[in-house]
Each structure stands twice: as structure tokens, then as C-alpha cells.
Amino acid sequence: MNPCKLKISKWLLALPLAFSLHTELHAETVARYGISMADIPLTTGQPDRGAGAYQFTGHTLYDPLIAWEANVGTRPGKLIPGLATEWKVDAKDQKKWVFTLRKGVKFHDDSEFNADSVIWNLDKVLADKAAQFDAKQSAQVRPRVPSIDSYRKLGDYSVEITTKEIDALFPYQLPWFLISSPAQWEKLGKDWNKVASQPSGTGPFKLDKLVPRERADLVKNTAYWDKTRLAKTDRIVLVPIPDAMTRANALLNGQVDIIETPPPDVLPQLKASGFKLVQNVTPHVWPYHFSTYPGSPWTDIRVRKAANLAIDRDAVVQLMSGLASPAKGQVDASSPWFGKPTFKLGYDLAAARKLMAEAGYSQAKPLKAKIIIAQGGTGQMLSLPMNEFVQQSLAEVGIDVSFEVVELENLYRHWRAGAKGDINASKNITAINLGYVTADPFYAITRFTDSKYVAPNGVNWGGYNNPKVDAALEKIRTTFDTKTQDGLLAFVHQSMVDDAQMLWVVHDVNPHALSPKVKEFVQAQHWFQDLTTIRM
Amino acid sequence: MFAYILKRLIYAIPIALSVTVVSFILVYLAPGDPLSAIAPADAPEEVIIALRSAYGLDQPVPVQYGLWLMRAVQGDLGLSIATGREVTSEVMRAVGNTLLLAGFAALIGVIAGCLFGALAGYRHGSWIDRIATALSVIGVSIPHYWLGLVLTILFSIWRPWFPAMGAGPGGSSEWLWDLEHFRYLVLPAVTLSVIPMGIITRTVRALVADMLGQEFVSALRARGLSGVAVFRHVAKNTAPTVLAVAGLQIGYLMGGSILVETVFAWPGTGFLLNTAIFQRDIPLLQGTILVLCMFFVVLNLLVDILQPMIDPRMGRA
After folding, report:
1. Percent of chain A scoring above 90 in pLDDT
2. Res B165 pLDDT > 60
3. Disulfide check for A231: which of A415, A532, B126, B278 has CB 3.0–4.6 Å away?
4. Is B247 within a domain?
């Protein structure tokens, strides 16, 4: 062949190849994510629908001042700088916290992030007379930042927040508080409902499209300030599919690439079809929270310990098709707050029966107790089968449990009222089964153990009162060194376990099923997940 | 005729008013707090009180009803507690999706029901009758939820011919009348059509069998009319009853099916109701129930108006 013709034909062959490679290199990567919610969570700044919603429309579109490290799965995350590069407590007045803000950060609408935006956002959720106050967003975040008393601007990139009392754990509250753009709110006629479809934050994703109850398209924010957290996928499509079986079908059918919480029954089929199942330690526990008020059958520590020794937790995990992990306490044993409890949770029927006999009970002469449970709902795992399992296990050691079954919403009323509340006391309810989020020291430990949070002042439901624990909690509040804090928290936790404050059964593992098309997804040991880690 | 229509319209007013009372009051009888849609489980009492006041839920129920009715007659059903979006637009979007699904399901149900029913009626006692009867019994007895799942397993997973869920690749807002979108409609519509198909089959079968035994049919045959001509007379005489039954069935379909729409994540009124119930989103629940009930009222009104047009004796009665 003529060398010239050969060259031309080589070029002709190479051109389409190069073009196709170019197209492939620039083709948009899309991950379709089937989420378990019935609607897309609020997009205005503070997501509704609980802690699990922050990964979808919270930390994707927005950033907090202090962030949670959610892009590691091999160890528990920690607090890391977000929109604040530094925070420190005022040495003279330890109620005052000074935050140094990150410079050069822009909202998606190109307006600048600065101290004014922080104050404006604090007013948005805490100052009910402010023009931008939004009751919906306020309701989401106010209970999460209970320590904030006041705040002020110190400079263009510096703000001061004053807490109601000295609270060294205050930084843990701030990953819940997200910053939205004041300029966008102004531009959209000061209407939060309009902001919902055109939100503007500083986060690693922008909202491209929102079809209520059907989908939300998040696109990569290429100008994101944290270059280590640039999204690995160009577009993430969130598809609400509340029914677990429908989610699994959508995954099997190829309509979505990732789903949350696959139904346990479908796991073998998913695995056999080449889908990956990922799960991790998750800050959640499924317990029976005992009342220790006089008259409650659980006032006797031997009974509480016997209950904890009567449960074959591995069998519960099996019941959940592996989608749970056995509890050793309120938090997972790998947590820095676990400590060294002397009472080891395990399955030991002989020891449990012995304790019950010492307390004066047996299978022939059982102790009777009434527990309030939900028929299902968020965080409750497989509520009814698991409760029936526990009921049968407790019967083996002489604890005759009867259930008051209510809807989850109703259960929350009973929870807020405390064991002494009329709605519980009148029905002789002496324990409550409610899945607890245990993501930070307050949520995991303080709110259940501090005697000042005895219901109705908080959710110390059963009236737990341990002066040593109270003293340690007081010390934690004034201890600003993280390691010392962790040590004190570990002491409180081991006291909870040694006192058998609750019957801890299992932890959730927040399972996800992934299509083989998903090359990477780092599942953090938290309810906060980082969707920037998804790679297709 | 005009007087008849006017009378029917006047009758519809108290029915509509009763519907508003029932749809408003009923949701208050259910346990739970509407603020659970927005307040976290451990929200302190002061947050709950502030929210109750912000949403007007601290006012007496009759006052809330009065304010709601005044807005509702102007087409404003308020704002959803959970999302802050306008209930009217939320419901109308869902109604549009349900109409699409229900329309297609009704088409399948009515056509198949009339066909099977007529065949069974004409071949009364034969194997065709037995098969049609069996199909109609299965249609009315089979649980929707189960059938939806089985169809999905068969035709979405085992043989991936149809999507397992959703209302189109881009969501219902980007619906197009093409094959790609039509595929999303097939499984939920077939699932939804089995009950009306079963009921209409039974009705048509009984009516046709009865008509064929009537003297006027024997007379028509004696006069040498063809089978087709006789069928035309039979069809005309069975039509008013079939229309009334089909109207009711279409009304049920318009109401959406909570189970079918949930199984297929179809964003219609059933899916919306399901969400509103679980979130205790009272304005959304009231608005959806009201619109669905009004569908029934309007459909019944239409059937009442159409029936005397087909059978003038009814108008005179």
C-alpha cells in the first residue's frame, strides 16, 4: 500500500477512537441512589427526617462550621474543621467560643461566606423575630444545639458563640448546624419555599433538579473549597423509595445503583446476583430502657443483669440476616467512650437464672413486667420479631414480659413523658424499647445518664441517678482536652454497663447494597455519610 | 333534562359539604401529633409549643375547620406541614399521575371485564363461562400488593422487560407519550386493573345471561334478527348498570391505590396519602381526601347525568 494512503487510513481509524475516548473521558458519571424516605428531605439548609437525612440534602449541599469526618470507614470519625478553620474556648470565660472562619469560600450563588452569613444563619433558626426565621428549619436544629445562648460577630471572619453554661462538648453540636446563603434567600423574594427548589450552600454538590417525592439531582460542585473532598461522581440522583422490597427490585432491575437498608430476605438473591453489601459499625443501639423508680421490677440490679445475660445476641443477628451487630453496651466496643466495664454482656442462661433466683424469681415464679414497644418505624429494626425473641428469651430466666404495642409516634410521647409520667405510670409500663442514635457524647451518653435530664427535663427516661456519674459529667463539661473527655466518657459508659442501666440487644449496621457499577463507597461509622466518596 | 341535572347538582352540594366535614374531622380522630412531621422526637416542649402556634394548631378545631373551608372553596388547601409546599399543587400533581395510571387501568379493566363478561354470559354454563368466572373471582380476591410484587419479580427481574418502579426515567414531571415512558405504566396498570376487571366481568356476565333469557330477546330472535343485532339490543339494555358499576370502579381507581402506588413508587394520590398518613401531615391528608372524595361526587354526578341519556325511563322516574 502507498505509505501516504496507509498514514491517512491510520489517521482515519485513530480519529473515531480518539473521539470515543474523549467522549468517554468527559461522559457524565451518574449514581442513582434509592433512599428509604418517602420524600426528599428539606433542601433549605436543615434537613428534616432525622440524622439519616443529613447525608442526602445536608452535608451534600451545605457545610457546618465544624464538620464530622465521614470519609473514613475503618475507624470512628472525629470533629474536623468545616467552614471554621479553628475554634477555641475563651480562657477567661469558658462559656465563650471563638470561631475563625474560612476565607475565600463562596456559596453556590457566588456570594461570599463570612461572619455575617453565620450570624444570619444563627438568627434563621434561633431568633424567631428575625425576617429569615424559618420555623421548619428551626425545629430541626434547635434541639441539636441546646447549649447556644447568644452569638455575635467579632470581625469579618470571626464569630463568638456563648453557651448557656460551660460546655466542653459544645463542638459536637455544630455538625448539625448548616449554613445557607443569605443572598439566595434575598434573591428569591425571601421565600424559603422557593429556596427549597433553588438552594444555595457551600457544599460539595449543587442541587440541579428537584421533583418532590420523586427525585433530586445533585451535581458536583467543581469549585468546592475542600479539594480533598471533591465529588468522585458528577451527578447523584436521589430517588425516594420507601418500600424496602421495591428498593431491592429497583436495584435488581438496574433502575438504581445503590440502595439503603435492603430487606434481609433479599440478601441472598442480591449477593448471588453480584451485588455488594456494605455495612459498618453504626452509632445506634436497640435497647430496653429500664425504669429504676421505686415499684419498678427493674430496680433490682440482679434482675437487670439477668435480663442482659438471657439474650442470645448472635441469634438476634441471625434473625436480622446478619444486618446487626451484638451489643456490648450503649456504644460499640470500638468506641473511645466504651471504657472497661466489669459486667460483660453475653449469653449465659445459668448465670442469669442464678441472679434471678437470688432476686427471688424463677420460671415457676416469674417476675412480671410491662414494656412499651413500637410496631415498627425508623430505627426500630424488625421491631415485632425482635421483641418476640427477647420476650421468649426473658421467659427462659423467669421474666414474664407483656407488651404495650403502639405506633412509633405514640411511643415518642411515652418516651418524652418519662417512666414517672402519667401515661406510663397509669399503665404500669416499666421499660421502653426505642432505637437510640448514639452519634455523639450527648446523644449516646449524657442525655440518658445525667440526673438533671430526668424526664420531663430530658430523656433520662428511667430516672437513672448515679452521683459518681453526675460528677464525671460535670467534669466533662469543663474539660476541654479531648483525650481527657474521652476518658471521662468511658468512665460514665462503663458505669452504665456495670449498673445494667438498659438491656442492650444489638446495634444497627446501616446496610447498603451496591450494584457492581459502583466502584467505591466509603461507609462511615456514623449516620452522616459522605456521598462524595461514591465512584462509578 | 335540565331540571334533572340541576336537581342532581343541588344534591351534590350537601354531599360535598359533608365530605369536607368528614375529611377534616376524621384525621383529628387518628392518634399522633401532626408536628411529628417536622419536630424531632426529642424536641423540647417550647419548640413544640412554638410550632403549634406557628401552624395554627393551637386553635379550636371548629375555628381551624372554618378557616380551612374558607380557603378550600377558593382552591387553597393550605401548606403541607412537612414540606411547606402548597397542598393544592401537591395534590393536583399526584392526581395527574393517578389519572394517567387509573385511566390506563380502567381501560384494561373495563374492556377485559366487558369482553369476559359478555363471553361468559353468552356461553352460560360452558367452559368459557367457568374460566371467565374463575378469572373474575381471582381478580377480586387477589391481594394487589402480592400481585404487584409477583409481576415485578416476573417481568422486571426475571425477564427485565418493564421497569420495577417510578413514573418515567426523569420522573413524572418529564412524562412523554412514547414507548420508553409507556413501559413504566404497564405493570402498575395491570396490577390495578384486576379488581375492576373482576367486578365488571361478574356484572356483565349476570346481566347478559339475564337479558338473554328475557322475552324481548326471544322476540327479536323470532323476528329473524342476526346475532350481532341481538347483541346490540342486549348491550344497550345492560349499559346503564354496567356504566354505574364501571363509574364506581373508575372512582376507586382515581382514588389511587395506596398499596399499588407504594409497591411501584408511583407518585400518585395513593402514594401521597401514604406519605401524609405516616407523617401526620394533616393539611396534605385533608386536602388529598377532599379532592378524592370530590372525584367520587363528580363521577357519580356524571353517571347520574349519563344514565338517563342512555335510558330515558330513568330521567322520567
Report:
1. 71
2. yes
3. A532
4. yes
In a domain, B310, yes or no: no
> Is position B82 within any domain?
no
**Region A367-390: what's the mean pLDDT?**
88
* Same-domain check for residues A177 and A49: yes
Inside any domain, residue A256: no
Residue A126 CB contacts under 8 Å (≥ 6 apart), including other chains: A138, A142, A145, A148
Residue B192 cell numbers, joined? 390495578
Element containing residue A217 per DSSP (H, E): strand A215-220
Show the cell assigned to A473: 459529667
Region B92-111: what's the mean pLDDT? 90
pLDDT at A84 > cutoff 70: yes
pLDDT in the model for residue A5: 56
Range(s) of the domain holding residue B123: 87-286
Decide if B302 is inside a domain: no
In the predicted structure, residue B39 carries a pLDDT above the cut 80: no
CB-nearest partner of B157 from A211, A215, A249: A249
* Pairwise CB contact (< 8 Å): A48 & B37: yes
Half-sphere exposure of A329 (CA within 13 A, CB side): 26
Given a cut of 80, whether residue B284 has pLDDT beyond it is yes
Minimal Cβ distance to A242: which of B54, B90, B262? B262
What ipTM does the predicted assembly reach? 0.78
DSSP B226-277: -HHHHHHHHHHHHHHHHHHHHHHHHHHHHT--HHHHHHTT--SHHHHHHHHH
Q: Is residue A184 part of a domain?
A: yes
- Going by C-alpha positions, the residue among B294, B302, B246, B315 that lies closest to residue B95 is B294
Domain CATH for B199: 1.10.3720.10
Q: Which residues of chain A have a CB within 8 Å of the CB of B165?
A: 241, 246, 249-250, 255
The per-residue pLDDT of chain A, averaged, comes to: 91
For chains A and B, count residue pairs whose Cβ atoms are closer than 8 Å.
133
Helices marked H in B83-126 — which ranges? 87-122
- Rounded Cα gap, residues A99 and A487, in angstroms: 26
* pLDDT tens per residue across span A241-293: 888 889 999 999 999 999 998 988 888 889 898 999 999 988 999 999 999 99
Range of the domain at A469: 284-508
Grade residue A343 by pLDDT with cuts at 50, 70 and 90. Answer: very high
CA distances (Å), origin A258, targets A237, A268, A521, A523, B176: 10, 17, 10, 12, 26
Residue A316 lies inside a defined structural domain of this protein: yes
Residue A33 main-chain phi, psi, to 5 deg: -115, 110
From the CA of B201, how many Å to the nearest CA of chain A?
Answer: 31
Both A493 and A526 in one domain: the answer is: no
Question: Distance, in angstroms, between A266 CA and closest chain B CA?
Answer: 12
Q: What's the pLDDT tens digit per position in A455-477?
A: 888 889 999 999 999 999 999 99
Average pLDDT for residues A428-451, to the nearest whole number?
A: 92
